[in-house]
Amino acid sequence: MKKKVERARRVLAAQRDLDRLAGWALADVEHRQAEVEDGRQKLLDFLKDESAFGDLFAAAVLRRLDALKLAQGALRAERAAKVEQHVAERVRTRGAERNFETLVDAERRRDEQLRLAEAVDATLNRLGSGRGKVGG
To answer: What is the pTM assigned to this prediction?
Structure first.
């Protein structure tokens, strides 16, 4: 039983690491999304504020805005996948936690039963040895 508990403890530790990694990957995608949105907003502000140079750079800025729009779409899809992965890792982590807790509880109950059986045996042995002395 102790081997099962130790194995479950290692699985739980590994699963928690995978869950943490999935969370970091999701945070990374969200950070990249914020950077793309910030770049897009800066380009829009440039077009609005720099009307004198706007005509010179308009085509380049529009191409860059199109590229950022494509990047946003790709990041949305990547984020959706990372959210799904993180949720799946979280579910597996919860399952590993339940499995570990179940095994620990079973081991604790088994140990308690063994201690109780030993206490009963010791009590019966004391009572049995006491009878022989009284009757003898």
So the answer is: 0.71
